[in-house]
Amino acid sequence: MTEQARQPLAAPLVEPFADRLARHGLTLARARTTALQVNVGLRCDLYCAHCHLEAGPAREEIMTRAVMDAVIDGARRLPFAGIDVTGGAPELVPDLEHLLRGLAPLTPRLVVRTNLVALSGERGRELCELYRELKVALVGSLPATNASQTEAQRGGGVWEQSLAALKGLNALGYGVEGGALELDLVSNPAGAFLPAPQEQAEKKFRSDLERRYGVSFNRLYTFANVPLGRFRAFLERSGNWPGYLQKLAAGFNPCTVEGLMCRSQLCVDWCGRLHDCDFNLAAGALHGGEVRELSALVELPAPGTPIPVGDHCYACTVGSGFT
Amino acid sequence: METYYHPADLDKFSEIGKDAPELAAKFFDYYGAVFAEGELTEREKALIALAVAHAVQCPYCIDAYTRACLEKGSNLGEMTEAVHVVTAIRGGASLVHGVQMRKIAEKLSM
Question: Tell me: the pLDDT tens digits for B38-52?
Fold first, then answer.
């Protein structure tokens, strides 16, 4: 073999994630599984620039009632301390009420992730009442406390609709101090930069939203954008791809690996297939490296089961990590 | 095109310690301590640094503290206002020296 033939076509931008783990004497394997994330499909009324799943109004992937019944049956057979429903926009899935009514009695903690905008209109109001009745904890997406950054990420008109939704949820008792209905916020950066430290960002969000708009919430979570899907396309288009990936890799914190959510959570997609997390779902990486369905799962995955990794995993191990 | 400023050079800042490591260590220790959370938050300090970066017109500092401000949770409105603050002080510093000009002119004039 010639010297030239031995050279890779293009040097990788960063050390492959699997190699980085190995260099630190680490492996990524499942711990005890305690939570189930249910991705009900990719249909969304927004077209967010950072979406790793490339959800949007034109997507047709939606969980059917039959798959919902399989998910409910799975939650009945297997003990999940928490079940987390996400999308797309779960509110756009026609049989969402059927799924939530089926899951609510089966888990101590049922969460719905909402883009907030999908809570507007008559159906949105009805779903808010349903969430309250079932004591569903809500996690709303809000990247920033200003219109320009929010709409740069999530589209025009989103800021006012998000504020209106938050005020409506507060009026229902969500996110109010001393109340039992939980309303947390998630902030992903509106660009190719890392998120603010969670504690500092929460303080600023609380102050800005309360002082300017009279909006309250329980907790804020800040997460790095994962370089997959539409966010990766943005990085490449804007010339930020190498710098962002290198920044994630440079900030690798081996201490985060133990607490990564993929170790304790199973993710079931709209077809009923299992993944270790929503990002591996986006990357096309299956739980156990092959098609396995929740309906066929007789027991929770054994601790030590390997988790497929890719360079996108650097987004969950940067700084204080994604747990 | 050849240029005195290249964005990649920012990452070489630590190389300044190669021939004077003790002085560099003192500087970088001090620098780190200055930007740690104290009476002011890290976010507030980054906004001050961004404003000063514009006053001293340092491209490296503007690059570094634009990113730092965003990553500490500041928004473009706050960052733009910070640049206006430094602009007001910088412009005001020129204008207030007009008092000297007027005093000297008055002394010289009939």
Answer: 999 999 999 999 999
DSSP for A238-253? HT-HHHHHHHHHHTB-
Minimum-distance CB partner of B76 among A148, A194, A201: A148
* Record: contact B75-A144, CB cut-off 8 A: yes
Indicate the pTM of the whole model: 0.87
Q: Does A148 contact B71 at a Cβ distance shorter than 8 Å?
A: no
A51-64 pLDDT, tens digit each: 999 999 999 999 99
* Phi, psi for residue A59 in degrees, rounded to 5: -75, 140
- Cβ(A241)–Cβ(A231) below 8 Å: no
What gap in Å lies between CA A158 and CA A147, rounded to an integer? 8
**Chain B within 8 Å of A198 (Cβ-Cβ)?**
no
Report phi then psi at A34, rounded to 5.
-125, -10
ipTM value of the model?
Answer: 0.74
HSE (side-chain half, CA atoms, 13 Å) at A184 = 13
Matching residue, tokens 């988790």:
A307
